[in-house]
């Protein structure tokens, strides 16, 4: 019996290493997804801190694709996730990005993001089309960094295209609610 237990532990350890390697290099493969970037701007081209705003309709697919994209980035990216939506949360033991968990009532989350940007790191937020979150307004007001919209379009069940757009000329003097609504509409335009 002890012999089988040892082999079971060894098998679990090997699977953990395998899944970590897959997650690190191509997390979308764990969900059997294919994606490609169709815009001239690629995540590798971004050298300075930005606020990535991504469309967010399918939790598992969106997170796997964006984690794969973060592995290609030339800047450190901090991904905000509510309750750590990444479906395989314990698998990425080693990643090229940080995960910031968002609780129901985060303590100083906006301030934490602002400080990370000041340390030359980017932030990635996934926004639903009915977004009402105000943190992005305060982050942009304090840092004045560019926004990079990342639009994910699902072609079929397993294929997704990505489109990046740099947006620098936003009007932060707008009312907070108007600003958030305008940014969310701009993110979801043409989808």
Poorly predicted regions: 84-91
Q: At the third CATH level, what is the topology name?
A: Glycerol-3-phosphate (1)-acyltransferase
Provide the domain count: 1
CA-atom Rg in angstroms: 18 Å
Q: In which range does the helix fraction lie?
A: 25-40%
What is the string of helix and strand elements? HEEHEEHEHEEH
CATH architectural group: 3-Layer(aba) Sandwich
What does the largest sheet look like? Answer: 7 strands, mixed
Number of strands: 7
> Structural class, please?
alpha/beta
List the strand order in the largest sheet: 1-7-6-2-5-3-4
Average of the residue pLDDT scores: 82
Distance between the termini: 56 Å
Relative strand content: 15-25%
Write down the overall geometry. Answer: globular
Q: Treating each run of at least 4 consecutive H or I residues as one helix, how many helices?
A: 5
CATH class: Alpha Beta
Q: For this structure, what is the CATH homologous superfamily?
A: Glycerol-3-phosphate (1)-acyltransferase
Describe the 3D structure:
- This protein is α/β, with parallel strands linked by helices.
- The chain has a single domain (2-188), classed as Glycerol-3-phosphate (1)-acyltransferase (3-Layer(aba) Sandwich), CATH 3.40.1130.10.
- It contains 5 helices and 7 strands; from the N terminus they run αββαββαβαββα.
- It has helices at residues 2-25, 59-70, 109-118, 135-143, 176-188, and strands at 34-37, 51-55, 77-82, 97-102, 122-127, 147-154, 159-167.
- The protein has a 7-stranded mixed beta sheet with strand order 1-7-6-2-5-3-4, with helices on both faces.
- A hairpin with a 4-residue loop joins strand 6 and strand 7.
- Helix 3 packs parallel to helix 4 (135-143).
């Amino acid at each position: 019996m002890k012999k089988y237990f040892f082999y079971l532990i060894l098998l679990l350890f090997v699977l953990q290493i395998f899944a970590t390697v897959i997650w690190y290099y191509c997390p979308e493969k764990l969900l059997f997804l294919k994606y490609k970037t169709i815009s001239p701007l690629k995540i590798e081209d971004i050298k300075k801190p930005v606020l990535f705003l991504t469309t967010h309709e399918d939790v598992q697919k969106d997170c796997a694709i964006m984690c794969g994209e973060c592995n290609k980035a030339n800047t450190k990216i901090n991904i905000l996730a509510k309750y750590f939506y990444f479906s395989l949360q314990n698998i990425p033991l080693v990643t090229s990005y940080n995960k910031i968990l968002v609780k129901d009532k985060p303590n100083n989350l906006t301030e934490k993001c602002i400080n990370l940007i000041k340390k030359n790191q980017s932030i990635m937020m996934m926004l639903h089309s009915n977004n009402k979150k105000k943190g992005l307004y305060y982050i942009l007001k304090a840092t004045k960094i560019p926004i990079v919209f990342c639009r994910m379009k699902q072609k079929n069940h397993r294929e997704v295209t990505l489109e990046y757009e740099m947006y620098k000329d936003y009007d932060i003097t707008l009312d907070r609610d108007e600003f958030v609504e305008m940014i969310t509409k701009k993110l979801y335009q043409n989808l």
